[in-house]
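Hey, quick one: can you model this chain's 3D structure?
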Amino acid sequence: MKVRFLSAGDRALVIEFGDTVDRELSERVLGLEAIIRSRPPAGIIETVPTFRSLTVYYDPLLTSGTELQRSIGALLEVADSRRSGARLWQVPVCYEGEFAPDLVDVARLTGLTPGEVVALHSGTRFHVYMLGFLPGFPYMGDLPAQLELPRRADPRLRVPAGSLSIATSLTAIYPYESPGGWHLIGATPIRMFDPERPEPALFAPGDAVSFRPIDAAAFASIRRAVDNGSYQVENAPIAK
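Sure thing. Here's the predicted structure for all 240 residues.
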């Protein structure tokens, strides 16, 4: 697979690995980010992974795009295929009633029952490709093919924080109330982004996520625990 280096002004360099959304390509992006973080060339300020590329921001007084391309080209030869420190998160989700306003429509559009939609979604282990749109908003794939749908024709002006959504081949959780055009099939009581945490975003690119169905009573109980700071989202390291 050929890698492309693209200039993004005088302060950023984009390393592009391809033009598709798939796990192998994502692992290459995250592997390069991991080795850059462990062996940072001079002048690097920040790295931002996306579905198919890594953007590297740098200080033009300390390095140049040409010098950085040379340094990163050498690191590509030894980059691992997976980000170290990745974690598997077990996220509680209520797929019922007011928490899942589009579940019945999704079932109708896919030819499934609501229960089958929930079983397919909660039975899938998702890969966090990237964060974007809102702080801590995780783009996760890949949905089972039976659940793939285009975005809604009529986007909402207000999507509640914690809403679990699907569109195309992806699923996501809204960290804050915002406009949105994805199908809402559930909600989680946990906080996806908290500026007071050492790592404000709960997930990181390269993490894995599984969803655990809960009822409305469990949702309320977990929300109270989240609000008083006594709830910890279940998670474990992913073995390399």
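One thing worth noting: The chain has a mean pLDDT of 95.
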